[in-house]
Design a protein that fits this description.
By secondary structure, the chain is an alpha/beta fold. Helix content is about 50%, strand content about 15%. Helix 4 packs antiparallel against helix 6 and helix 7 (about 120-130) packs across helix 8 (about 140-165). The two termini are about 50 Å apart.
C-alpha cells in the first residue's frame, strides 16, 4: 500500500473509531451520572481536549522527521491495548471503588482524553503521508485526507449509534472498536510483514474476546451496584440504541424500573398498594365520564397503560414509546404483560413529538404522560410551551391532559399559558378547557367500575379498597397561582430554547460539584 493510500485509510479509520468511542462514552457517562444534561458537554470537552493534545503530539512527530509509518503502527498498537481493556478501566473509574472517593468524573475524563489523544496523533501523520508537498496539487491531496476523515467521522457515529448499541450493547461495542483499532494498526505494516501482523492481530482480537467472555467487565452492572443499596438486588438489564433499562427486584410493591439509570416507576397496578402513585391514573376515571380514546406518551413499565386501558368505556389506547426495550421488560412481568395482547392497545415505537406531528388528525379524550424528571437531558422536549401547544391540538372537546411535573412549578405554569384550566394533583399537572375538579358521588362511583376482563378492581364494600379510593379523592387540587406563591420566586414559561428545567432550575451538577 502506498503512503498516500495509507494516509486515506488512517484518516478514515481515525475518524470512524474516535467518533464511535465518543458516542459510547456519551452513553456510558450519561448512564453513570443519571442522564444529567451536563454529561454530553463533559464528554465533548474531554474528547476535544484529547484531540488537541494528540494532534499537537502528532505535529511534533512529523516535525522531527521520525519514520511515520512505524510510528503510526506503534501508536495504534498502544491505543488497541488500551481499547481492549477499556471496559475494565471504566469499571475502575465508575464502579464501586470510585464511588467511595469521588474520583469518578476525573477518572473517566482522563480515560476519554487518553483514548481520543492516541488516535488523534495519527491525523497529522496522515496529512504528512498524504500530502504531495513537492507538486502543484498539495491542496487537493490535503483535501482528500480531510474528506476521508470527515467520511469516517460521519459514518462512525451512525454505525455505532444505530447498529452496535442496538445489537451488542455498550461493553461489546467498546471491544468491537478495539478490534477496529487493531485492524488499523495492521494496515500500517508493509506488505512483507502484513501476513504475520494479521495473524498476530487476529490472535490478539480472539484473546480479548475470549477473555471478555470468560471475565467480562460487567460495566453497566458494576455502575448500578455502586449506586444501589445492597438490599435492592439487580434484576434485568436491557440495552437498545434508545437507552439502557434495568430493574431492581422487590418482593413488596412491585419491581423498580430505571431508564437511563433514573427511577422510571414501579410495576404495580393496585390502588391499594399504590407504591408508584398509581392513584394519578385511577383518578382519571372520576375526572372524565367517557374516555373512549386515550393516548399514552411514554409507556415505561406499562403499569399506567394497564390501568388506563381498564377505565370504563375505553375503546382505543395509543401508546408511543421511544425505547422498544420496555416491551421486553413488560413481557417478563405478568402483572402488566396483558397490554401487549390487548387488541385495543396499539404500541408505536417512536418519538412522541414526532408521532404527534405525523398524525395531526388524531384526537383523544385523555392524553397521559408520566413524564421523566424535569432535570434530565431533553426533558424540555416534553414540557415546553411548544410541545404542550401541540398536545392541545390533539385533545377532543372536554379532554384532559395529564403529565408529571416531577416537582417543577415552571412546568405547571407553562401548562397554564396553554390551557384555560390547569390544576396540580399530587405532582401531576391536569389540564383541560373545563373545570374537572368537582367530583360528585356519581363521578366517584366510576372509580369502582375500573375493571379487568369484567372483574372490578375495587370493591366499595371492601374496607381497604374504600379507604384507598377515599384517600385518593381527598388529595387536593392546587391552582397555578397558589403553586406560584409557594414557589417563592417568579415562575417562568419553559420553551424549546431556554431549557429552564434542565439548566437554570435543574439538578446540581453531579459531574463537577459546585459548578452549575
Amino acid at each position: 500500500m502506498s503512503n498516500v493510500r495509507l494516509a486515506y485509510v488512517l484518516a478514515f479509520g481515525v475518524g470512524f473509531l474516535s467518533l464511535s468511542q465518543q458516542i459510547l462514552f456519551v452513553r456510558l457517562v450519561g448512564f453513570a451520572f443519571e442522564s444529567t444534561p451536563e454529561s454530553f458537554a463533559f464528554v465533548l470537552v474531554c474528547f476535544l481536549l484529547g484531540i488537541a493534545l494528540g494532534a499537537h503530539a502528532g505535529k511534533r512527530i512529523c516535525a522531527r522527521g521520525m519514520a511515520l509509518v512505524p510510528t503510526a503502527a506503534t501508536v495504534l498498537l498502544v491505543a488497541a491495548v488500551i481499547d481492549s481493556v477499556l471496559p475494565h478501566l471504566a469499571v475502575i473509574a465508575l464502579g464501586p471503588r470510585a464511588s467511595a472517593f469521588a474520583f469518578a468524573a476525573p477518572s473517566i475524563g482522563a480515560l476519554i482524553l487518553a483514548t481520543a489523544a492516541l488516535k488523534s496523533v495519527l491525523f497529522p501523520i496522515a496529512h504528512e503521508l498524504g500530502a504531495d508537498s513537492s507538486g502543484p496539487q498539495v491542496g487537493r491531496s490535503i483535501s482528500r485526507v480531510y474528506a476521508c476523515n470527515i467520511a469516517g467521522s460521519t459514518l462512525g457515529p451512525l454505525v455505532t449509534g444505530f447498529l452496535l448499541l442496538d445489537g451488542f450493547g455498550v461493553e461489546s461495542a467498546f471491544l468491537l472498536i478495539a478490534a477496529g483499532t487493531v485492524a488499523l494498526c495492521i494496515a500500517c505494516f508493509p506488505a512483507a510483514q502484513r501476513s504475520r501482523a494479521l495473524a498476530a492481530g487476529l490472535a490478539g482480537i480472539a484473546l480479548v474476546f475470549v477473555s471478555a467472555r470468560l471475565h467480562p467487565a460487567d460495566l453497566l452492572r458494576e455502575i448500578i451496584v455502586a449506586q444501589t443499596p445492597p438490599e435492592m438486588p439487580l434484576g434485568t438489564i436491557v440495552e437498545t440504541r434508545s437507552g439502557v433499562i434495568h430493574t431492581l427486584r422487590q418482593s413488596d410493591g412491585g419491581d423498580y424500573v430505571y431508564g437511563g439509570n433514573v427511577y422510571d416507576g414501579r410495576i404495580n397496578t393496585s390502588l391499594r398498594v399504590n407504591s408508584n402513585g398509581i392513584e394519578r391514573a385511577y383518578i382519571l376515571a372520576a375526572l372524565h365520564a367517557n374516555p373512549r380514546r386515550i393516548l399514552v406518551i411514554g409507556m415505561s413499565s406499562g403499569a399506567w397503560t394497564w390501568v388506563l386501558s381498564r377505565l370504563p368505556g375505553v375503546h382505543e389506547v395509543d401508546v408511543v414509546e421511544i425505547n422498544p426495550g420496555y416491551l421486553e421488560l413488560i413481557r417478563a412481568h405478568p402483572e402488566v404483560d396483558a397490554i401487549l395482547a390487548d387488541p385495543r392497545v396499539r404500541i408505536h415505537i417512536d418519538d412522541g413529538r414526532r408521532w404527534l406531528s405525523r398524525n395531526p388528525d388524531r384526537r383523544y379524550d385523555l392524553i397521559v404522560m408520566n413524564t421523566t424528571f424535569h432535570w434530565r437531558a431533553y426533558s424540555t422536549n416534553l414540557l415546553s410551551v411548544e410541545f404542550l401547544s401541540l398536545i392541545r391540538r390533539h385533545l377532543d372537546a372536554g379532554g384532559i391532559l395529564t403529565f408529571n411535573t416531577t416537582g417543577s412549578p415552571d412546568a405547571l405554569w407553562t401548562a397554564s399559558r396553554i390551557f384555560p384550566f390547569v390544576r396540580l394533583y399530587h405532582n401531576c399537572a391536569y389540564a383541560s378547557e373545563r373545570d374537572f375538579t368537582r367530583i360528585d358521588k356519581e363521578s366517584a362511583q366510576r372509580v369502582y367500575k375500573v375493571a379487568d376482563r369484567g372483574q372490578a378492581l375495587l370493591n366499595p364494600d371492601n374496607a381497604q379498597d374504600a379507604a384507598a379510593v377515599s384517600a385518593m379523592l381527598r388529595i387536593p387540587f392546587f391552582s397555578p397561582n397558589r403553586v406560584a406563591r409557594m414557589a417563592g420566586r417568579p415562575l417562568q414559561v419553559i420553551t424549546d430554547d431556554n431549557m429552564l428545567t434542565e439548566y437554570r432550575f435543574g439538578r446540581p451538577n453531579r459531574l463537577i460539584p459546585g459548578f452549575n
